[in-house]
Design goal:
globular; Four Helix Bundle (Hemerythrin (Met), subunit A); 150 residues
């Protein structure tokens, strides 16, 4: 219970409502599935930010936050400190998105990537190394901001 309170407090401090599974829902996603989804979101966040599609970047960042919270809530083997280490980079990325600050976005993104790798090292999964994406696997998605009808 203390762990859930710590996680909820951590995410509420950055403005994220705690994720909760319904009590009757027997499905618990595998940690690898949650992290794979976060990895896809990490890629999309990068390309959205690099194309200055701040609306999409904000959405992807929110999804990453939710996934990390879900992982920390469902899996007791992930120390709260490791998840907590993602808070400052997430806050920096969020601030950069709101300010439409490309350089701040890159700095925050690199810090988030480093926090992910530190967590992987800390839980004995150092063979999972995340990096700044070089090519988008999403050939069916434009990362440029959508053109608004006039």
């Amino acid at each position: 219970m203390r762990r859930l309170v710590s996680i909820a407090t951590l995410f509420l401090s950055i403005g994220v409502a705690p994720f909760a599974l319904a009590q009757s829902d027997p499905y618990v996603p595998a940690l690898a599935d949650i992290m794979s989804a976060a990895q896809w979101r990490h890629i999309k966040l990068w390309f959205a930010g690099r194309h200055q599609n701040w609306e999409l970047a904000s959405y992807e960042l929110l999804q990453i936050r939710a996934g990390l919270e879900q992982a920390a809530t469902l899996y007791n083997g992930i120390p709260v400190d490791y998840v907590g280490a993602t808070v400052p980079p997430i806050q920096a990325i969020d601030a950069a998105i709101k300010a439409k600050d490309g350089a701040g976005f890159v700095k925050g993104f690199n810090a988030l990537t480093a926090a992910c790798n530190a967590c992987h090292q800390g839980i004995g999964r150092g063979f999972v190394v995340i990096q700044v994406p070089t090519v988008s696997p999403f050939s069916d998605q434009s990362f440029a901001p959508a053109k608004r009808p006039q």
